[in-house]
Amino acid sequence: MAQVASHFKLNTGASIPAVGLGTWRSEPGEVRGAVSFALKEGYRHIDAALIYGNEHEVGQGIKDSGVPRNEIFLTSKLWNTHQPNVKEGLERSLKALDTEYLDLYLIHWPVRLVPNESSELLPVNPDGTRSIDREWDQSETWRQMEEVYESGKVKAIGVANWSIPYLEALSKTWKVVPAVNQVELHPFLPQHQLWEYCAKHGILLEAYSPLGSAGAPIMSDESIQDVAKKYDVSPATILISYHVNKGVVVLPKSVHEKRIVSNKTVVELSKEDVTLLDGLAAQGKAKRINTPLWGWDLGFDDWYSPVAISG
Ligand SMILES: NC(=O)c1ccc[n+]([C@@H]2O[C@H](COP(=O)([O-])OP(=O)(O)OC[C@H]3O[C@@H](n4cnc5c(N)ncnc54)[C@H](OP(=O)(O)O)[C@@H]3O)[C@@H](O)[C@H]2O)c1
Fold it and tell me: What is the pLDDT of residues 212-225, one digit of tens each?
């Protein structure tokens, strides 16, 4: 079988491994071993975030692996409560991960949450709604991201969960074009227009929740299983390979050794099969899985959640 890309290029010129290990909901006690095992098995890309609450263990896993830090592509994300002070958020992640620098630092959501006595990282108002500052100017957060980029403590900066209208608004003031936009992407949420927009602006897309997040629900879809049979691989391999075949980085999460090993397998798909997978959402299977209460008005055209609107 022909080879598909193992790495892509960022607009900084740096190389990024096409498959990275996700760490969201990788529990304390599990994630250290998962990260160390993955690195020993050849992964060179780890996707972390302050809000995952496990960066300390991710850092330990990196050390345990014995793989030199400069051979690893390490991403972390600025949490929503740290938007007014990017340096502070970054320092916290660097300390927890026990590293001098990040290869990529992302704004986790284009949303500022205002900490209060209810919670430091996930604050709510007295009526139970999220404590969100909708007036906060994202271009100010990006300006501070540009500052930490200039400091050298992060080798690239980018965003996560940014729709086209949000990117367009940011483009009016950005000096540094985001290297990456990390969003939910899979055949049920292919985001074709965002794919085109990012390609046009040299922003590399990264696919999160490629298997449908907890429990990997997309793997059981009949069409995905049919394609998997055709290539004699698992449905997970098809869902992971789909992105790499489209020039998109993919971040499957697992804490199980067998899955960690098999999730780095990428197969080349025919154009017809990529088109088939691209078309599933339009055939009535469209579904967004990650819908936090601050997400509903972020300009994604598929987003509709009456429950979320109340939050
Ligand atoms: N920027 C953001 O806002 C954002 C949001 C969501 C996710 N992310 C990033 O993207 C990563 C991936 O997304 P995700 O964690 O939501 O979900 P995912 O990778 O789509 O799916 C993870 C789930 O699939 C299971 N799984 C993994 N490989 C499997 C396999 N080969 N066969 C069967 N089941 C398998 C995992 O279980 P086990 O662990 O038990 O194997 C887990 O339950 C995250 O970990 C995080 O790093 C970013």
Answer: 999 999 999 999 99
